[in-house]
Amino acid sequence: MQMAPTVYAAASHCTPQQSRDGEMRIICQVDHRTYTRPHNRSVILTVQAPSQPLYNAVTLIAVTSAISLLMVTSVIGGTLLLYMYFCKAPPSVSEISQSGIIYAQVPSELKCTIQGARQREIRVKWFKLRSGADSVVESESIPLMVSEDLSEEACLHSDGKHHTSVLTVCLTVTEDLNKYRCIVLCRGKTFNRETTVRVKVEPSFLQISSIPQIPKVERLLILCCRVENFYPQDINLEWSRNDWGRGPHCHTLWTIL
Predict the structure, then answer these.
(1) Is residue 2 part of a domain?
(2) Among 34, 127, 146, 161, which is most exposed with the fewest C-beta within 10 angstroms?
(3) Tens of pLDDT along 189-231?
(4) Backbone angles phi, psi at 69, to 5 degrees
(5) Cis peptide before 232 (omega within 30 of 0)
(6) Sheet harboring 162-169: ordered strands across?
(7) In a domain, 6, yes or no
(8) Domain, as residue range, for 231
């Protein structure tokens, strides 16, 4: 038995490369001994390149670095702020200052200066302290001190670095030796300052009289120096004599306290 002749089939593959969008024509040429000339077959392909990412690698690295730097800066800044808030040095609070002499019925200022804090962090309160001898309840060992809140009468002056709380008082002699307290509240801490006020009244009447009014030779002469309306009661009266015919110096005769 004779077998039928075998026919053959062949296939060829190619991988075209295209770097940009557009149409591409592919030609396949077939050459066989039975052909008087090669046969060509062609096909037109529409090539679409893959979409490019919005950001390239360099841009992505730059954005990532910027975000990382911003986060590190935020963490460091927050840490510094917390450290400055909780660990900063406490403010400086001065002693209460007052005029050298406080006269009765004359307005005078009591001042307390704060440094090292912002104005919004500060709260200042003023109190006048007086003995509670007239109170019903008293301590057996320590006199009871009664405080009067004068905070509403005080004002705060600030130049950005120095904050001065000023309390204006107009006192009488009955308020001599009264104590005043300034309380400064700042960042959860309390600072107390106290001062004692001495009230004075300048003598308003000074007169010298003599008995008799017209001195006479070899007659007893009594001189009287009268001073009124002063406070406190300690006073020094000093007499001196100026003998114009014997020299320019004054000689102290006696002193009365």
Answers:
(1) no
(2) 34
(3) 999 999 999 999 988 878 888 888 888 888 888 888 888 888 9
(4) -65, -40
(5) yes
(6) 92-93, 108-115, 162-169, 154-158
(7) no
(8) 205-256
